[in-house]
Amino acid sequence: MESFIAIGGLIGVGLLCVLMSAAIGGIRARLARRRQSAKKVLIHSINDDRCTGCDACITVCPTDVLELVGNKSRVQRFSDCIQCEQCAMVCPTTALVMHVEGTKPPAFRMPDLDEYYQAVPGLYLIGEAGGKPLVKNASNLGRAVVEHMVSAGLRSRPGSPDGKIEELDVLIVGSGPGGLSAALSCDEKRLSYAVIEKDELVASTIARWPKGKECMAEPYDVKCVGLLPVWDSQKDELLAAWRTILDRKQVRISTRETVEDVRRLPDGRFEVRSSRKHYRAQRVVMSIGTRGKPRKLGVPGEHLSKVSMLLTDAAEHRGQRVLVVGGGDSAVEAAIALSETAQRVTLSYRGKQLSRCKAKNRQRLDELVKVGRIEPRFGSNVVEIKQESIKLKTGEEVRELDNDHLFVCIGGDAPIKWLESVGVRFIDKPHLFARSGTDKLVEKLCGPQRETEREAAGGGAPDAVMVDMGSFRPGTLELGTGDVEFPEEDEQRTVIRFPVERVRRIA
User: Fold this and answer.
1) In CATH terms, are 118-292+416-462 and 294-412 the same topology?
2) Are 231 and 202 in contact (CB under 8 A)?
3) φ, ψ for residue 334, nearest 5 deg
4) CA atoms of 98 and 403, how far apart (whole Å)
5) Does domain 294-412 have CATH number 3.90.1150.10?
6) What is the rounded average pLDDT for all residues in the chain?
7) Distance from the CA of 367 to the CA of which of 81, 144, 154, 202 falls in 20 to 30 A?
């Protein structure tokens, strides 16, 4: 009998423990829910239209919450998120933001454009500045806007005899892939046009990438149906193909020419004043990108000729002592390229660690740091630039380093104010606002289209070689015997056309 009582007592105690444990667990759960409700939980919102798959957000996340799926960032393990918001801070296109659960993500400020990328009737804004980044999109939009002009009734008209103003059907501002595609489309439609470029190089953003950099034909779920072909390739291969196409089509581009004012006339045409001349055009295409005005360090000596904003060819700096300033992909890629030729490469970044570059760039940088090819200086700032040295401040310590060249890769200020001054309005759009695919827009105007082939716009072997005399260096071009007939000096032209039979070798 006593044993039964003892067993019953033990069972009772066990049941009591279970009940108490359940009660305590319930209390803890309620407290957790109260704490959770009291704490504002931040969640991710990702706009696929603006996500370029750069993986900056993935690289910086300390708990591996995000992954690339179909070349777009995706939240895979939200339970591991520590709410640090670093992913949102490093996103270069604001495609990824974090906001309080139960609220709307913050609005995105963008140009007010219609379906065909018109800011005002007849004025088109395409490419990254129009809220549609990536090279393939730019090529497609260059064609789409010209097709829209024609479908809306644009017809070529002769210019007036007034020699002070150049009369055009279409004025194209910017020689990136969008502007070049628009020029080729104007040529196909027999519209008179001009392309003006503020830089000294055509397609300057891509042309100034480090030699050998890969150019990805993104977005991969969109066909290239613009007249300027785009495919996965090294930038040098892509630019060489584009030059061949432009030469065959006799596309002439005025470099080092800056637009100063755009004014819409009562008759719907546009009067454009540049640093060189006046234009009057029926339509205007803005393909200016968002690089805008390069940011400066604001330190003594920044005017020196040894200071550059971008690296174009690492071979030009062989044996030099080089400093690269910046913490993004452009800075890291420049340092990596220079490590193969320069005597010494120092990477200066004001942050404590890199957080804005792609994973593969960070991995390659780490490898070069380990073998001593690159010396990183985190938490540092340039305070003075001299002809043969640079003063670098880290904390309270200032050191003077021997230096031959400085690259300032810290981005630029977007040209929003300038665009507003020429009639482009900026408005707030919902964060997840997205436009349809750029290939679909072309097909809406032209019907079903096949992917533009690499050779399609070129149409065979080149009959000439274009040499950029602005960046021409001895030893890069070998010509056959006989005199070379150079054109008369023309400040608007930095590229000279050589018949292909005259060229023995070009590096």
Assistant:
1) yes
2) no
3) -65, -45
4) 42
5) no
6) 81
7) 81
Q: Are 307 and 406 in contact (CB under 8 A)?
A: yes
Q: Which CATH architecture has domain 42-104?
A: 2-Layer Sandwich (3.30)
Show me where the domains of the chain are located. Answer: 42-104, 118-292+416-462, 294-412, 465-507
Q: Which residues contact 280 (CB under 8 A, 6 or more apart)?
A: 159, 165, 166, 167, 168, 265, 269, 270, 271, 272
Tell me the C-alpha distance between 448 and 411, whole Å: 39
Tokens representing 496 are 């000279």
Dist. CA 148–CA 142, nearest whole Å: 10
Length, in residues, of the chain: 507
3-state secondary structure (DSSP) of residue 412? strand
Token pair for 343: 């005597």
Residue closest to 204 by CA, chosen among 164, 244, 242: 242
Task: Return d(Cα 191, Cα 251) in angstroms, integer.
Answer: 12
| Whole-angstrom distance, CA of residue 190 vs CA of residue 195 | 15
Band (pLDDT 50/70/90 cuts) for residue 488 is very low
Alpha-carbon 211 to chain mean position? 17
Cβ neighbours for 347, distance < 8 A, ≥ 6 positions apart: 323, 324, 331, 332, 335, 365, 374, 375, 376, 377
List the structure tokens of 387: 């002809």
Supply the CATH classification number for the domain 118-292+416-462: 3.50.50.60
* Tokens 């196409």, located at residue: 245
Classify 423 as helix, strand or coil.
Answer: coil
Cβ atoms of residues 412 and 291 within 8 Å: yes
User: Residue 155: is it exposed, middle or buried by C-beta count within 10 angstroms (0-12/13-18/19+)?
Assistant: exposed
Q: Does an H or E element contain 240, and which?
A: helix 235-248
d(C-alpha 407, C-alpha 153), whole Å: 48
What are the tokens at 246?
């432009």
Cis (ω within 30 of 0) for the bond into 133? Answer: no
Q: Give the DSSP letter of residue 328.
A: B
Alpha helical stretches, state H, 339-374: 359-370
pLDDT digits (tens, 9 = 90+) for 341-398: 999 999 999 888 886 677 778 889 999 999 999 999 999 999 999 999 999 999 999 9
Rounded to whole angstroms, the Cα distance separating 180 from 206 reads: 13
Digit-coded pLDDT (tens) for 50-62: 887 777 788 778 8
Q: How far apart are CA 249 and CA 438, in angstroms?
A: 24
